[in-house]
Specification:
Layout lengths: L17 H19 L4 E2 L1 H8 L3 H10 L10 E2 H11 L6 E6 L3 H7 L3 H4 L2 E8 L8 E2 L2 E5 L3 H8 L3 E4 L3 H14 L3 E4 L12 E4 L2 H26 L14 H8 L20
Parallel strand pairs: 3-4, 3-7, 4-6, 7-8, 8-9
Antiparallel strand pairs: 1-2, 5-6
Helix pairs in contact: 1-2, 1-4, 2-3, 7-8
Bound molecules: nicotinamide-adenine-dinucleotide.
The site of nicotinamide-adenine-dinucleotide has 24 residues, from helix 5, strand 4 and helix 8.
Length: 271
């Protein structure tokens, strides 16, 4: 029973599950928005809805932090912001290098959300000599020949890889040898790293493929529901040649397109 607020210090030795750690940034984003609106307290239900998480899960997650809220009042927003930030290691400044300053690297360099979350873009590194010295998002690009020196001088422990896949492992090896112990990899390749080095991979195309899977399933369910209530289709549908909207809808296999009598939907194509 939650009878009062207890703020016990959270330590790593308490063993916070990885799944909880992965949700902490979601809570932090929602709490930061509340804090910016000077909202003093928030209930677990409100915060769970804002973070897109189930409220029972949220209460369990916060119990790992030693935060139980106050019955009838909720959680203290400012204290939770501090507590989660501390747990995520965001109360200190983290210098980050971005390697590969093409389309993606330049966009990441210009992303204001890093600085506001305690990540300072310490250096931008690219192998193209034509890029050397050119400012991107106000930071001059440095040549990859200097990668080791840059890492050492700036005390960088987090590296972001935004190079072509073919060179990502080699870039990763150099980053690790120079002292980087956490890597965020955007290149579509699996990186091998020694023990003690953490790698997180971001792949938007995988996320899209998962969404495509859900879209396909939803379309299949709709087709199933339709075939359960409708009599069998009398004859195959033929789109008029001149009806551009209907023709393009069918060609794309879109949701609005007419499905066959068995409710078939097109398979997701491999990437
Ligand atoms: N994860 C995602 O969701 C996602 C989204 C878009 C792109 N990507 C991937 O990100 C990477 C970059 O994409 P992009 O569109 O910015 O490509 P890009 O060609 O515009 O940029 C790549 C940059 O890397 C530099 N480079 C090449 N070899 C290097 C090396 N050894 N050291 C340092 N820099 C080097 C190039 O000079 C170039 O500036 C690709 O691997 C791409 O597949 C991932």
């Amino acid at each position: 029973m939650a009878t009062g607020r207890t703020h016990r210090p959270a330590t790593r030795s308490r063993g916070i599950p990885e799944a909880t750690v992965a949700r902490l940034p979601l809570y932090l984003r929602a709490l930061t928005a509340l804090s910016e609106r000077s909202v003093p307290t928030v209930s677990s239900e409100e915060l769970a809805a804002a973070a897109g998480v189930n409220s029972a899960k949220l209460r369990k997650d916060f119990s790992y932090l030693g935060s139980y809220g106050t019955r009838g009042v909720g959680y203290d927003v400012e204290y939770l912001v501090y507590q989660i930030s501390r747990e995520l290691g965001l109360t200190q400044d983290w210098p980050v290098v971005i390697v590969g300053i093409g389309n993606l690297g330049a966009a990441l360099a210009g992303y204001g959300g890093f600085a506001s979350r305690g990540f300072r873009v310490a250096a931008l590194i690219d192998a193209d000599p034509a890029m050397t010295g050119k400012p991107v998002a106000g930071i001059p690009v440095q040549h990859s020949d200097d990668l080791e020196r840059i890492i050492e001088e700036d005390g960088v422990s987090i590296g972001v890889i935004a190079t072509p896949a073919g060179v990502a492992q080699q870039v990763c090896d150099r980053l690790v040898a120079a002292g980087v112990t956490s890597i965020l990899n955007f290149a579509p390749t699996v990186l091998s790293v020694p023990d003690g080095v953490d790698v997180r991979k971001v792949d938007l195309s995988i996320e899209l493929q998962i969404l495509a899977f859900h879209e396909q399933r939803k379309a299949g369910e709709e087709a199933g529901a339709e075939s359960a209530v409708l009599p069998p289709a009398p004859a195959p549908y033929q789109a008029p040649e001149t009806d551009a909207a209907s023709a393009s809808g069918d060609a794309a296999g879109g949701k609005g397109g007419r499905k066959g009598p068995d409710g078939d939907v097109p398979a997701v194509m491999p990437a």
